[in-house]
Amino acid sequence: MNYCLPRISLYPCQMDITFTENCNQNCDYCWVNKSNPKVLDFNSIKKGIDIFLNFPVKEQTITFTTTEPLIIPLIYSKTINYILQQTRVSKKEINIVTTTNGINLNKEMRDFIIKKIEIYDRFRLNISIDGKQKSHDAHRKLRRSTGKSAFKLSWNNFCFLPKENVRVIFTVTPSETTFFKENIDFILKNGFKKIDIFPQMFTLWGRCELKNLQEELTSLVRYINEDLDCSYDLRLLNRLCGSSNYNKLLLGCDGNFYLFEWILAIPYSERKGYIIGNPREGIDLEKRLVLFSQLFEKTIKATGKKCLKCNYKNLCSFPLPLFLWCHYNKKDFGIYFKNFCKIAKIFINLSKEIKNEIRNELDTKKLY
């Protein structure tokens, strides 16, 4: 095919580590397949980190964002300590990003994380809040039906965090667009001013829901721009698009390196073809490039080459994750792709209007 491939670096600059695919929540919009019962051992973690940090890349990012990292607190804390130890050895600029639902964020873990934030300025903590209790609990259920509220368990822990150092991950779903303003107001009034707003992309949005989304986001952007308090840091993001997908790597809980974290969207039995190495033998970087090229071509074909002709292609890139999810879950990619394009355009256009969006600390593309 005579397609112009996006720029794919030989060495990935971001690695996501998944300790386990188990989670203490069962969110109805979670895209992780959760079909691998294994738990990543610490020796594999150390070797995997060593391989990644040995790449000739100046700035690198290690993330803990797929499934709940604090569900195995001992391994998490040992891993963080090991990374910090290696930063001193390698003398590299290593960003560390943790995203948690907060249920396991007890006092001991809070103290551990707060201390890391204080001593290491490249440590980032993201917390998942979808707004007030009603909206949060509407989609975030506890894995075990105990009758308790997932919101209350998380919020009680979030209240003790230093809000100026924490970023809120806010997922907006079609059913909750009506409550968008009050949910955002709730987060802002409780002192959280760094918010990443993500649309739920693995569902289909109706015309009225899309209209509500655009109106609510437009109103929010106008409010943020007009407010004299310049400490707001609002970002409208879409995990499914962007060139950052091509610069990633996943260390899965089975001890294998995979193409990127979106491989977790497909059943474990189907993932073998996307393995690019392991901590014992290293990574086949050439295979990584080939796999990305193949996926790129399949995705372009599935879109009818529409992405190549799109005026937003330099900002949006190609929805490889959505293609993978649809393909292996037997969904109609054509329908979901149209839905994807509508939401992507809303987010891209409004992102351009945010005046005080912070871009100079860490490159957003390297964090997600």
Summarize the structure.
This protein has 368 residues and is an alpha/beta fold. Helix content is 39%, strand content 14%. It contains 12 helices and 11 strands.
Layout of SSEs?
Layout: E1 14-17, H1 42-53, E2 59-64, H2 73-90, E3 93-100, H3 107-119, E4 123-128, H4 133-139, H5 150-158, E5 166-172, H6 180-189, E6 194-199, H7 207-226, E7 233-236, E8 248-251, E9 257-258, E10 275-278, E11 282-283, H8 285-302, H9 306-309, H10 313-316, H11 320-328, H12 333-351
Parallel strand pairs: 1-2, 1-8, 2-3, 3-4, 4-5, 5-6, 6-7
Antiparallel strand pairs: 8-9, 9-10, 10-11
Descriptors:
368 residues, alpha/beta, TIM Barrel, 11-stranded mixed β-sheet, 12 helices, 39% helix, globular
The number of distinct β-strands equals 11
Q: Helix and strand string, N-terminal first?
A: EHEHEHEHHEHEHEEEEEHHHHH
Structural class: alpha/beta
Q: Could you give me the name of the CATH homologous superfamily? A: Aldolase class I
**Low-pLDDT windows of residues:** 357-368
CATH topology assignment: TIM Barrel
Number of domains: 1
Helix content: 25-40%
Give your account of this protein's structure.
By secondary structure, the protein is α/β, with parallel strands linked by helices. It has a single domain, classed as Aldolase class I (TIM Barrel). It is built from 12 helices and 11 strands. Strands 7-6-5-4-3-2-1-8-9-10-11 form an 11-stranded mixed β-sheet. The longest helix has 20 residues. The chain starts with 13 loop residues before the first strand and ends in a 17-residue tail after the last helix.
